[in-house]
Structure formats: C-alpha cells, structure tokens
C-alpha cells in the first residue's frame, strides 16, 4: 500500500511543481527518489506540530502539500494544528499516516493507530480515506491532492487483493467486492483482507455474504450503506480501530439519519481499549477478535441470535 | 500617507472602545502591540488595501491572536475595511472575533487564537517564497508568554536551518503572561542569547518607539532569520492599565472607558 502511494505521489510531483512532500523524519529509504525534485521534498525533523504549520504556510501560498509520518504522529500529536491551521483555512494538505491500526504491531500501543479515524472524521473540512487495497492507496493520493482541501490518508501494512473491475477509485464511493444477501460485511482499510477470507468461509457454510470496501469514511457512501441495510439480512462493520467513533459509528449514523434499520447490526473492532500486548498485525487482529476466524464466529453468532 | 503616530493614536483609542463595547478581554495586550502593528501596517509592510492578495505583498501574522482588536483597528485605519465595522467587535454575529480570524475580514492573512501556531505558519510562508526566489517578507508578532509553547522552538530550529532571511519574528516583550510575570512563570531569560544560539539574528528595541521599530524591520539580514525583542508595556498609554495583569481580562466600562480615552487623548496633545 505504501509503495503504491509513493509511486503515485512521485508521478504527481514530477508533473506538478506545486506538489510538496514533507516528512517528520520517517520513511527511511522510502523517499529517496524525491531527493531529485528540487523544492518538492523536505524532512522537517521530528516535529509534527511544526510540520503542519510549515505545510499550512506553503499551502496558503498555493502549494499542494503532503505530510508524512507513521502511526498517530501526524494526526494526534498535532491535532490542533490540523484543526486550526489546515482545516479552518481549508488548505490543500494531505496528511498521510503509514501504519493504520496494528500495522506496527510489535512496537506497542504508542504506535497503534486505533482512534485516528474517529478523531479525524470529527473535523469539518477534513476527508478521511483508509484504502482497502494497494491500488486504492495509489489512486487516493492522486485524487486527494487534485481535489484540494484537507484530507487524511490512512495506510495499512496489510491490504486486500486488488479488485480487477472496471470501477475505479472515487472519493466517497464504496466498492462492492462480493455480492451476497444474508449479511453485508462493510470494512475499511487493509482489514478487508480478513473480511474476504471470512466471506469465503461464511459462503461455504451457506451464508451468502456481501463484502463492501468502504475506503472513504468521510465523505461516506450513504447509498451503499442504505442498500446493504435494505437488501441484505444486516450489516457488520469491520475496522482495525476502536469500535467507537469509527466506521461502525459512521454507518449507524447514516442508518439512523435515513430512518433505515438493518435487521442485524454488529460493529467489529477494538472494544474501547488500548492494545497492551504486542505482536504481528495478524496476531493482534486475532488477539483482539477481528481476524477472519473471529469475524466468522461473530457473524454466525449474531445471525443465530 | 498618514504618519504611524496618527495610526497608532487611532488604534489605541479604537481597541479601548472595541473591548468596552464588546465587553471583551485583552485590552492590555492590544495596547502593548498598538505601536508595533501601526508601524508595520503604516510603514513597513508592502501591502495594498486595493489588492490584499497581491503576489508581491508582504505577510503579517498575529500569532498572539488575543490582541486581534489591534490588528482589526490598524487594518481598518489603513483602508482594508470600513471603520464602522470595528464597533461590532466581539458582539453577536460579528466577523471580528476576540481572537483574530481571516474569514470575511480583508487583510487578515491567518487566523490564530491558540498560541504557538503563528511562527510555524509564518516560517512555512517564508519558506515558500524562498523556494520561489521571491523577495516577499513574512512578519509574525508573538507574545513573550507564547514562547512557552514548544511548537515555536521547532519552528525556530526550522527557520535557521533553512536560512529564512525573509522571516521576521517580533516578540511583544511586556514580561507579563496570563497570571504572573514571564520570569516567575517559566523563565525566558536570557532570551536574546537563547535565540542567537539557535542561529537567529536578534534585535532588541523599545517596542513603543516608532523609529526603533522601523529601523529593526529593515531588510538587511541576508539569509538569517530575525527576531526582534520589542520591549513593551502592557496597557501602554493608560496609567491604570499599565503593567497590570488584570487588564489582560477586564473590559473597560463606564468611567474606566472615559478615563482611558482621556489619557490617550492627552498623550496625543
């Protein structure tokens, strides 16, 4: 996912001198080719608050700025700069965090980004995108920079397989990866990988499962959510994130606002807690009951209730 | 062109009235910077009320956003908008908020209010001009208490590293912060030496002396960012407000308003 992002951004920067990439001293060996682009790539040091301030200054004068760091550093560490400087002034700044959810699983809770979606989507003027596949990450950075305004791009280490279909990435438009009628699994981010495996298993035992990749959390695809609520047996949201405030919350807001109640509704994610053990991303998804095995079990239990 | 003294006289009286009518705080902070913003808008900044967004303009950011009334007053005095609008400051529905906001207010480059935001943004704008090899300069006015914020020191490192000679930070050194003096709260001294050690040029001036301010703002620093320590008096020009923390908060009402305006008048005579 990160490679797709880097390649796309590099191509964009080659064509547009106004595109500037800032990193807060992360991305060792990742951005080497950007060094050749004079005036378009800077390491501002370990200083996220300053990075958003510098980005805002550059964007106020017309530049299209992408800021990069990992985990919670480019979001929570400098949240007020994002709110007051980037969002209030509606600046073309794309905040990129490599390492959504448990991507940096073994590094501990400081590096687990598990509330970022909730917090970033609460900011007016902010778009929030968590690509499910590598191709979405590449397309998202291009779209976000071109569209302007402030946005947050959350990159995962794992990703679902690229969907070979005609439909391309559009901000605010979900992608339906699989048709089904008994239940709709709606996922954001790379955890779609686990959801796809779970859907295979569920289908094997006769549960017809729709899979929706909701890469855009804000703006969100209301039509796709309502369709799932009306035309399937219910909605299960899956996110590598706190259950509170993230994708599941966003889906329930849409349903309530539209007056549509899914027959079944379940939010799978981190149960309002910090991850206090470490391990690989896959280990932690299993530990916190959001991997394919847990998804299958939870869906079966919920449908049998 | 009006003299900077005339502008300052207007700004001082305006901020007393604005904070009175709006029943709002920070009149002491506004009087502390009234001379500085008057000199900047009246003489130093290359700006035009007829073309506020000119590519060739200089930039001014008020980082101590709580003194926004002084900036609004100066902007209106030099022609960016109608002076009548000042009377709405801080009142229901007004665009002139207690902390400076750019929305709907011509001439305000950047909104602030939370401390420690202005300098990084100013550094980013100065950096942008430098990348483009433009000669625009960027000025940012900060409070001294604001230097407690770590984000400023990140930006101070950045500006020196990137040789932002087009960046001028002015510190309103009235030595008072929200509750007590800066030195009792979190010592800043020796401030000039600290900033110099970070690779900046430091000028120390009387922040109420217009010639001093003009001289210190001259474009002669080469590739070194400049920090001007402007020694000021909080509440300057109104005897009962001078050096009194109370006037960080209190709104001048009734007799206080009359006395303040009277004193500011007699000083101009």
End-to-end Cα distance of chain A, whole Å, is 38 Å
Can you tell me the overall shape of chain B?
A: globular
Fraction of residues in H or I helices of chain A: 25-40%
* Number of E-type strands of chain B: 5
- Strand arrangement in the largest pleated sheet of chain B: 1-2-3-5-4
The arrangement of helices and strands of chain A along the chain is HEEHEHEHEHEEEHEEHEHEHH
What is the first-to-last residue Cα distance of chain B?
Answer: 20 Å
Question: Could you describe the largest sheet of chain B, including whether it forms a barrel?
Answer: 5 strands, parallel
Give structural attributes.
heterodimer, A: 305 residues, alpha/beta, Rossmann fold, 2 domains, seven-stranded mixed beta sheet, 10 helices, 12 strands, B: 269 residues, five-stranded parallel beta sheet, 11% strand
Notes on the protein architecture:
The complex is a heterodimer of chains A (about 300) and B (about 270). Chain A is about 35% helix and about 20% strand. Chain A has helices at about 1-15, 50-60, 80-85, 115-120, 135-145, 190-205, 220-230, 245-260, 280-285, 290-305, and strands spanning about 20-25, 40-45, 65-70, 95-100, 125-130, 150-155, 175-180, 185, 210-215, 215-220, 235-240, 265-270. Chain A is globular. With about 300 residues, chain A is of the alpha/beta class. Chain B is an alpha/beta fold and about 270 residues long. Chain B has one domain: 3-Layer(aba) Sandwich (Rossmann fold), CATH 3.40.50.970. A 5-stranded parallel β-sheet of chain B has the order 1-2-3-5-4, with helices on both faces. In chain B, helix 8 links the parallel strand 4 and strand 5 (about 225-230). In chain B, helix 1 (about 5-20) packs antiparallel against helix 9, helix 2 runs parallel beside helix 3 and helix 4 (about 120-130) packs parallel to helix 5 (about 150-160). Chain B is globular, with a radius of gyration of 17 Å. At the A-B interface, helix 2 and helix 3 of A face helix 4 and helix 5 of B.
């Amino acid at each position: 996912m990160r490679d797709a992002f880097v390649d796309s951004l590099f191509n964009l920067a080659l064509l547009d001198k106004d595109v500037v990439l800032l990193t807060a001293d992360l991305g060792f060996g990742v951005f080497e080719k950007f060094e050749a682009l004079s005036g378009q790539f800077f390491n501002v040091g370990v200083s996220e608050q300053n990075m958003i301030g510098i980005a805002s200054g550059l964007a106020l004068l017309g530049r299209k700025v992408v800021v990069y760091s990992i985990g919670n550093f480019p979001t929570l560490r400098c949240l007020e700069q994002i709110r007051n400087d980037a969002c209030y002034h509606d600046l073309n700044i794309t905040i990129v965090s490599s390492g959504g959810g448990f991507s940096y699983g073994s590094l501990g809770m400081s590096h687990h980004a598990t509330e970022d979606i909730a917090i970033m989507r609460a900011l007016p003027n902010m778009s929030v995108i968590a690509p499910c596949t590598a191709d979405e990450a590449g397309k998202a950075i291009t779209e976000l920079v071109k569209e302007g305004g402030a946005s947050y791009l959350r990159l995962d280490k794992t990703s679902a397989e690229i969907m070979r279909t005609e439909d391309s990435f559009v901000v605010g438009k979900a992608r339906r990866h699989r048709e089904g009628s008994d239940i709709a699994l709606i996922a954001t981010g790379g955890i779609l990988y686990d959801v796809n495996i779970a859907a295979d298993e569920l289908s094997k035992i006769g549960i017809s499962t729709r899979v929706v990749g909701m890469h855009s959390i804000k703006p969100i695809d209301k039509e796709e959510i309502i369709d799932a609520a009306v035309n399937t047996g219910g909605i299960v949201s899956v996110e590598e994130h706190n259950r509170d405030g993230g994708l599941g919350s966003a889906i329930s807001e849409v349903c309530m606002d539209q007056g549509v109640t899914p027959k079944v509704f379940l939010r799978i994610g981190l149960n309002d807690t910090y991850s206090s053990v470490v391990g690989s991303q896959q280990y932690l998804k299993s530990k916190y009951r959001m991997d394919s095995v847990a998804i299958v079990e939870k869906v079966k239990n919920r449908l049998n209730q | 062109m009006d003299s900077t003294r005339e502008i300052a006289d207007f700004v001082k009286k305006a901020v007393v009235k604005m904070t009175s009518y709006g029943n709002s705080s920070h009149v002491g902070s506004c009087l502390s910077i009234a001379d500085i913003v008057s000199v900047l808008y009246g003489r130093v900044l290359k700006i035009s009320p007829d073309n506020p967004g000119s590519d060739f303009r200089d930039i001014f950011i008020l980082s101590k956003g709580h003194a926004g009334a002084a900036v609004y007053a100066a902007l209106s005095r030099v022609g960016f908008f109608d002076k009548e609008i000042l009377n709405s400051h801080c009142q229901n529905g007004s665009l002139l908020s207690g902390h400076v906001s750019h929305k709907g207010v011509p001439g305000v480059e950047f909104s602030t209010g939370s401390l420690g935001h202005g300098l990084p943004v100013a550094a980013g704008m100065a950096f942008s001009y430098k990348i483009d090899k433009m000669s625009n300069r960027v000025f940012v006015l900060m409070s001294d208490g604001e230097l407690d914020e770590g984000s400023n020191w990140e930006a101070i490192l950045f500006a020196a590293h990137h040789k932002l000679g087009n960046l001028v930070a002015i510190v309103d050194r009235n030595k008072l912060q929200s509750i007590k003096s800066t030195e009792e709260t979190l010592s800043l001294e020796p401030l000039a030496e600290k900033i110099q050690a970070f690779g900046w040029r430091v000028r120390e001036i009387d922040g109420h002396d217009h010639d001093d301010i003009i001289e210190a703002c001259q474009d002669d620093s080469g590739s070194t960012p400049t920090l001007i320590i402007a020694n000021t008096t909080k509440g300057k020009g109104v005897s009962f407000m001078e050096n009194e923390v109370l006037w960080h908060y209190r709104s001048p009402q009734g007799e206080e308003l009359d006395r303040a305006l009277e004193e500011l008048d007699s000083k101009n005579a």
